[in-house]
Amino acid sequence: MNIALIAKIGWRVLHDISSLLVQVVRKKYKVGLIQDQSWMVAKSNWSSTWRSVGIGIREVVYPGYSWVIGDGRQIRFWRDKWLSSTPLLDEVIGDLQEGYESQMAHDLWNDGAGWDLQRISPYVTKVKRLELASIVLDRVTGAKDRVS
Question: What is the phi/psi pair of residue 76, to 5°?
Fold first, then answer.
């Protein structure tokens, strides 16, 4: 129960950036993006409370977070969990070309045509291609990618 409550505080720190308390904590502990876990390494200036929040984030938040796609500008196509419960990189067939791992979802989307399957198909199974066909980027309403 304690870890769940502390994870809730961690979730708030990661997402409620309008709160003054969260802004102070983010500055003090140099909280970064959820995709970049390098800031989560415990440091000597961390209080015992913040260390507990870090444990909650590492043990509860990180294993369960995924992305809901909007315009595809924040989601790393191969490295983030957005299509299924694991990153596409974990299910790749063969070796990705150099630089492919850092591609954003919007880089592999063609307006009016859908996913750029010529660049994706060599690396994913037919089942994943079918899953991709059910996902559409939203470049019309301005919806942003969000963490869930």
Answer: -80, 115
State the pTM of this model.
0.75
Statement to judge: residues 52 and 73 lie in one domain: no
Tens digits of pLDDT across the chain (148 residues): 888 898 898 888 888 888 898 888 888 888 877 777 777 777 777 888 888 888 888 888 888 889 999 999 999 999 999 988 889 988 888 888 888 888 999 999 988 888 998 999 899 999 999 999 899 998 888 889 888 8
Cα 70 to Cα 27: distance, rounded to the nearest angstrom: 28
Domain residue limits at 24:
2-64
